[in-house]
Write a structure and sequence with these properties.
Distance between the termini: 28 Å
CATH architecture of the largest domain: 3-Layer(aba) Sandwich
Bound molecules: calcium ion
Order of helices and strands: EHEHEHEHEHEEEEHEHHEE
Structural class: alpha/beta
Helix content: 40-55%
CATH topology of the largest domain: Rossmann fold
Low-confidence stretches: none
Largest sheet: 5 strands, parallel
Length: 229
Amino acid sequence: MRERILIIEDEERILQFLKRGLAYEGYQVDTALDGSIGLDLARENPPDLVILDWMLPEVEPGLDGLEVCRRLRAGGDVPILMLTAKDTVSDRVQGLDAGADDYLVKPFALDELLARVRALLRRAKREDPRVLTFEDLRLDTGTHLAFRGERPIELTAKEYELLELFLRHPRQVLTREQIYDQVWGYDFGGESNIIEVYVRYLRQKTEAEGEPRLIHTVRGVGYVLREPT
Ligand code: CA
């Protein structure tokens, strides 16, 4: 599953530079030119990491980078990397107090930013529950083994990615476009039935002994992992 990174930065040039660099590394990148748009985007498509500029235009009174950081932090535990031109000890402390996980002083080298991003994502993953569960379905993200009750299920790489996506978004309807984008990593186009095929594989494997269905079709939209009906 490709990791989603949200960049909130008002300097278009830096924004595009970061977007290109991160996309080249295979990340899925969302961008916002101010904090208000950034917070909206973070709610719509929860990112795995946020790169946040400290000095943002206050489109709402008081909504500077620090405040955006506080609000992001209040909404969840997404890792936040702050970009700042400030480099005094008290500024750094303020940023970390507001909930930033790390900060980088401008100007910085892209390689250094990428290294920080990787480190933060690794750390977040480690703190993530290693075993994802829903009802009697379990997926060990370390060994890539799945179980339905006590019954082990072998998965191919794509089946694993698809099942992981469902288990990370229980009871949430995932559109075909979202699934395509997350698992196959390119924009949805044409009439491919690859999602149907893989959902069928997963159902066959998770229902092999007559267990009730957990992956349900939402007609005209996509699929959802929810309790059997
Ligand atoms: Ca700025």
